[in-house]
Amino acid sequence: MNNFSLTEINERITQSSGFVDSLKKGINEIILGQETLVDKILISILSNGHILLEGVPGLAKTLMVKTLAKLINTDFQRIQFTPDMLPADLLGTLIFNQKTGSFDTRKGPIFSNIILADEINRSPAKVQSALLESMQERQVTIGENTYQLEQPFLVMATQNPIEQEGTYPLPEAQLDRFIFKLIVDYPNKDAERLVLRQNTKSIDVSLIKDITNPTEIINAQSVIEDIYVDEKIEDYVLNLIFATRNPQDYGLEDLEGIIDFGASPRATINLVRAAKARAFTESRGYITPEDIRYIGNDVLRHRIILTYEAEAEELSADDVIHRLFEVVEVP
């Protein structure tokens, strides 16, 4: 890319990213002590990707998504996933109209811009498969008809790491559709003190004023596609991914027998997509190794499948990713 085109993309970013700081500030005024989480949710929606959140109940996940939808001026639906749920409860169904003698389509709650799929691992495989089409193809099939979903479209799914009884683990194919898997932790003591003070008063989300709109988000997604990626950055991403598949080729002999399956090509794509979105939020027209490192754990942790040996040694995917970033050479 020549200097002119890099200057041009920087100008486009300056023009189209003005809402980012206001959006962060607006969410952080309501959701206290979760600045990094808020940042990565914004990166996800700008990347046109979906998020899997893992955390105990009571960490304001619903309030966060509802606040985001209000600030962006989009529709929001919270769907509670349960073991007796059917695909029709999510997508909608055909209803027989006695007056006309024909079937009318009744659309389900998936027809919204931002979806909170609460405790997604409590639903059976049929429901998860139905959600998969929506996430990947941005469309829904009801009967013989296919309907396109409105953009932007974000699924933020949650799962509780504590309760495993009555749950259906998400298959790897579906996990791979989430751009990020984020671990939601408790806030620190100072942040929780502010949470305590804030929540002795009721929060009326309906009074929150919108900061941006779907058109601006879609425009930003278009600008992000043109952010410059140097060949050295591409090599860095490819080396990280291939090190998950053949660790011994990258001086990571200690990971042999630890990784059962390495990251998929979708991980390669999503590392770059998310890094571009992060550069956009930093008002840059190019991505750096630091952008890759910032989102690396979140893109990779649900895509690296560990062996039983790793579990026996109490190693996690995050431990493996930490070793990757330690050893793989930074350009």
General description of the model:
This protein is α/β, with parallel strands linked by helices and 331 residues long. The protein folds into two domains: 31-199, Rossmann fold; 226-327, Magnesium chelatase subunit I, C-Terminal domain (Helicase, Ruva Protein, domain 3), CATH 1.10.8.80. It has 14 helices and eleven strands. Strands 2-5-8-1-9 form a five-stranded parallel beta sheet. It has a two-stranded antiparallel sheet with strand order 3-4. A two-stranded antiparallel sheet has the order 6-7. A hairpin with a 2-residue loop joins strand 6 and strand 7. Helix 2 (19-30) packs across helix 3 (35-46) and helix 9 packs across helix 11 (265-281). It is globular and about 70 Å long.
What attributes does this structure have?
single chain; 331 residues; globular; Rossmann fold; Helicase, Ruva Protein, domain 3
Structural class by secondary-structure content: alpha/beta
Order of helices and strands: HHHEHEHEEEHEEEHEHHHEHHEHH
What fraction, in percent, of the residue positions are helical? 40-55%
Individual helix count: 14
CATH fold-level name of the largest domain: Rossmann fold
- N- and C-termini, Cα separation: 18 Å
Overall 3D shape: globular
Indicate how many domains the architecture comprises: 2
Tell me the name of the CATH homologous superfamily of the largest domain.
P-loop containing nucleotide triphosphate hydrolases
Under CATH at level 1, the class of the largest domain stands as Alpha Beta
Largest sheet: 5 strands, parallel
Mean pLDDT: 86
Order of strands, widest sheet: 2-5-8-1-9
Low-confidence parts, pLDDT < 50 over ≥5 residues? none
